[in-house]
Amino acid sequence: MKSQEDKQNVTEFLIQGLIDIPELQPPIFFLFLLSYIIILLGNMTIFVLILSNSRLHTPMYFFLMNLSLTDIGNTSNILPKILNILLTQHKTISFVGCIAQMYVFMSLTITDALILTAMAYDRYVAICHPLHYFIFMSLRHTLILAFVSWTIGFLDPAGHATLISNLSFCDSHLIDHIFCDITPLLKISCSDNFKVEMLTFIEGALFAVLAFLLTFLSYAFIVTSVLKIKSSEGRRKTFSTCISHLTCVTVFYGTLISLYMRPSSDYSPKHDKFFALLYIVLIPILNPVIYTLKNQEIKNTLRKLVNKMT
Fold first, then answer.
1. Most CB within 10 Å of its CB: which of 11, 45, 132, 293?
2. How far is residue 168's CA from residue 188's CA, in Å, rounded to a whole number?
């Protein structure tokens, strides 16, 4: 193991990136550039539509605006660097930049999970306690839920960032991934990673699993309430208000479980790169599409906005 002084001389890493075949890099670059533009336009459109229509100034749409912000933030944290690597083959990233990228990714991912949990709670109150909805989901309560989600999201990964920034990276400086993430960084560290892995396990149990369980319980109560509705049309209309959110939750947790819920010994760069791309690119594209296609109010607002512009 190298000395503390050697560790401090680590000023940058190399990111392996997606592919080393020169002929494939230009089309992949334009594909990801197009995806990035679609993500920005789609999520910004959702944001503008909700702001422009007072009928959409409800807790559910407020949380959707927050979801759009996390999608824009997470994609902008990672995709520009991927595009730069594809375009210039400049694969270096500074030590500080790498830790910052990892921290922002973790922060926005945790915030994402908590915002989705708040949206599930909103649907639970709306369907199971409709008479008390404006009490439980008042403006004050809605703002508190959003504030807590963002605060926990940005405070929680601080421990990881501190511990990882103090590890030794004397074996290799090549990160076999498309961005700076915890597992690839631990793989090239020659320090004892026990503290980081224990912190990841504890916080994963506290926040990720808890957020998933709260979301699951919300939908368990929702399904129970919907099944009590006598008419099939009533059941369909009531549950249809949850379809968009439930679809986003399924894609979100399905991707994260595939990416992180396995022993570190089973780490596979190809596997992680694939599911990381799904999370970074596919989910931010799908979220605006899902909420637009499944929501008549948003479609009507979009139609009115397009008519005004033309």
1. 45
2. 9
d(CA 205, CA 203): 5
Cα separation, 49 vs 41, in Å, equals 12
Query: 10-residue block means of pLDDT along the chain (310 residues)?
Result: 50 86 86 96 91 90 94 96 92 94 95 95 94 94 96 93 88 87 88 84 78 92 90 82 86 84 69 90 89 76 77
In whole angstroms, give the CA distance from residue 252 to residue 109.
Answer: 10
CATH number for the domain that contains residue 98 = 1.20.1070.10
**Sheet of 174-175, strand order:** 92-94, 12-15, 174-175
Closest CA to 71 of 100, 109, 34, 102: 109
- Helix 95-128 to helix 210-227 angle, to the nearest 10 degrees? 20
The tally of domains found in the chain comes to: 1
Q: Residue ranges of the alpha helices (H) in 137-282?
A: 139-155, 158-165, 182-187, 194-203, 210-227, 232-260, 269-277
